[in-house]
Each structure stands twice: as structure tokens, then as C-alpha cells.
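User: Before I run my own analysis I want an independent prediction to cross-check against. Here's the chain; please return only the C-alpha cells and, at the end, one sentence I can use as a sanity check.
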Amino acid sequence: MEKKKKITILFLCAALLLSTVIIAGCNVTSEKTTLMVYMIGSDLESKSGAASGDLTEIEESGVDLNRNNILVYTGGAKAWHNDVSDATENRILSLTTDGWKTEDHLEQTSMGEAETLANFLNYCVKNKPAEHYALILWNHGNGPLIGYGKDSLFNNDTLTLSEMKTALDASSFCNENKLAWVGFDACLMSGAEVAEILSDYADYMVASQEIEPVFGWQYGFLNSLGKTDTVSFLCGITEKYLNTCIEYYEKKGYENKDCTLACIDLSYARQLRDQINELFQKAEEDISEKYDMLTARRVGSRAIGRASTASEYDLVDLRDLASKLSEEYPEQSKAIIDTIDKMVVKNATNAKSVSGLSLYYPFFNKTYYNEAWCQTYRELNIFSDYVNYLSKYEKIWLDDNKINSQTSLMPSMISSGQYALELSQEQMQQVASARYYILRKDGKEKYTKVYSSSNVENVKSRLIANYDGNIIYAHSKLNDYFIPYIVEHDTTDGVTSYSIPATLDNSIGSGLDNIDIEHSLIAEKCRFVISADKKSNNIQINSLMPNEVAKK
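Assistant: C-alpha cells:
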């Protein structure tokens, strides 16, 4: 892809301690760990064999089977690429010195049901007793509002946070016998909401704020299971994952791809919950007078999953959000920042302004909020004062008539190729965010969108479209070119992330003009996710992904 000048029309609108027995001066570990892997195969297995690949990694990891039990529940895929799993039934596998063994053949039930997960957990406790237990949830991740997993055999059934809680309540881990740790080998699951839910059932959580590549974790880390303390072991998972991802993306030429995996100490979750409530209790008192300030701080916070998936999950980095609100609420913001710094034991990432914990804060995706997410978040009943804040916030946020001007708002050219919208002081005080569009004239009365961005500067009662006059376009071998609809998402350290809708039928430009990609999580088309370095003018494709809810 290259850049080309275009004439434009703009419309502004705590550690797990292993007890030992001393024998003849040597320390012999006397405790055992049962590791349970809940592996929903889905399209990751049927299309690319990713689950089978990880089963091979686990088998070849060198894990000490004298110290550990390894059990895997498989299902949820239309096809399997190994000899021990089957698409016609669910199975429980155990790792032996001779490889994988089928422990149990089970009826094909949805792995998106709480009962299925609970039955697996209880089976492991009954049949493979140990002093310590750990759980890995393997598959797609969809964030706190949609949940984890996607069972391909049951209409892509997902295990929501509420269902996850129900499963754990029905297991042996609902009282004092907590899991040593829970890991999500999945996308977008390292959220404050997830941490709060799991804090009743586990000591630690390992999860990613951002998306994971299809290969996910590298299971060679199991070689250390039972040989070191829990914190060191979990930090090792995050470090190995980060190094593997960076190496993979560099080989692919995706130098700006964000990689994240954090180890979270869940003993701080209640403290963080109370501090989030305290911050938004204060914000709720100010919402009527300071809505625009509060919304501007939210819009300016580090977005999670937005550039990498080209979808609006409305997740922000919690620490960055607190930092943005520190001037208005210094005491409450500092408390959150200090707790996150202690709670996130290890944040393995190459991304900027990413702390290890996200928070759902609606703004861009009104459609999904209205259809389901509002009710889903309230039913989670996690952050009560934050929910109260959102109830007042939404009354203003969802009011499309908030700015009611008696004059026509028309942009003016303030310099060559630069446009601005003049606002009154009253109007300016009401602006939380703005977006501009670039339109291409295709006929006498026909215009097509070719660009949109929220990169708008607010300068002295002027909204100025921050646009340099360049457009990215695709160039063919026949010297033909076309300009697709490009959406600018964010800019970090001079590198801007974009998404471009695309089709897979080789007909350049086909169907591009009428795709609504701003408020849709699921579409039949695909999108390129690209980045551009404004200093070097280097443009690279970071990925080509289907518009699924999430991609591991």
C-alpha cells in the first residue's frame, strides 16, 4: 500500500509454598499438583489444529508426572487433528509416560454450559486428588461482557462470567480449597471484572488484555511445574509467551503488534473493587456538571482490543484511565494505581500504556450496549457504585439530542487541506469527542466514505480535523488503484493503527462502500489491520482477520 494526495470533503461530526520432607539431607517435594485444561477446540482446532498442536507441546514439555497430574477436557470442535479426541463426543484425557490416554468418553454437551465445566472440575478432584489444583481455559476470549469460549457444535455457545461463577460454585473450589491459579489461553480476558469474579476461587490469574495469536501459549513452561514456587512459575509463563510472540511477529513483519500477558494476584481484587467504586461514586456526584470532562478522559484512555480487532469492545486500560482522572480525583485515582501496581505481579508486554488490567467502559458501541451489554453488566453485580455511575452516564451518553444547536454547523477551511468547525463556548463545553469523515465524489450527487477518524483537536473553540492530506490506497500489478474505506483507531508513539474492510473473492473493491464497520462486532467480511509510522511513512499489514467476536 502507498500514500496518494486526494482532494477531500470533510464532515465533522501470594506464593504457593511446597512443603518438603527432609531425607538424608535432601529436600523431596511431598505435594502434588493437578493441572486441568478445559480445551474447547472450536474453529481453532478444526481449521488449524491449534488444540492438537498444544496437546503435543504439553506431551513434549518434559513435565514431571511424578509431581503433577495433567488432565484435559476436549470437545467443541467439528474436527480434531489427533488420535485421542473425537468430534462425536467429549473426552477427558490424561497425560502418562506413554503419551495421552483417554480417561473417559462423555456425552456431547456444550462446553459453554456451567454444568460441563463443573463436572470436569469435580471429576479431576475425585479421580486425581492433589494438594494443589490449577485450571487453564483454552479457546477464544471475548472480554468480560461476552465471556470465554466458543463451542462450534452448539451454536458457538460461550461460557459467560456468570456461568463461570456458577460452575465454580458447584465445584470443590468454592470454599477454602481455592485453585492455585487460573489461566486464560485466550484473548481479552485480563479484566478487573474477571479478576473480581475469580478471586473467590483462585489465588492467581494469568490472562491477556489484548488478543493472542492462534498458537497461544507455549507449553514448554510445564517443565517447571512443581519445581518452583507459584509466582516464579507463573511469571515464567508470561515471559516465555512474550518472547515467543515478539519473535513470531518480527518474522512475519508485524513489528508493531501488541503482545500482553499478565500474572495477577487475586488477593487484591476486593481492594481494587472498593477503590473502583469509590472513584465512580465521586464521579457519579459530578456527572451532571462534568459529563464532558469525564467522557473526554474516557475517550483519551488507552483502548484495548480496538486497533487489534477493529471491533468495539469498549475496554480501556484501568490504570491509564485512573491516571487520566488523577487531576479531578487525585486520592481515588492514586489508590487504584497503587493497588494495580501491587496486584499485577508481572506484566509481560511490549505495548504502551497497558498495565495488565482492563475495565469495560461503554462509549463507542451503543448498539451492543442497548441490545445486551447494559443488562449483562448489571447482572454481573461486580462494581455496584460503578454500575450506578453508568446508569446516570448512559442517560446523557445515549441522548442523541444532547447538542441542540440553532445554527447549522458547517466546517471551514483554515489552511490548505485543513478544516475546522467553529463552536460557541457553550457548545465547546458539551463536546466529549468528535469524528471526521473524508468523502470521495463518485458522481453528480453520490459520495463514498473513504476515511474516518476521531483524531480531532480541540483548540480555542475550534474542532480541527487532524489530517495531513494523505490517503492510503491499494495498488495492483496493472497500475490500477482503489481507495477502500479506512478507519483510523489510535496513535501511539507516532504509529497509527487502521482497519480496512476487505472481501476474499479477489474482486477488488467489491462490496466495500456499504460496510458498516464502526458499531459491528460480527460481519461476513474480513478486515485488514494495518499500521503506519508517520515519521518514516512505513506502512505494514499487521493481520488479516475475520470479523469474529474475537480471535485467539
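Sanity check: The radius of gyration is 25 Å.
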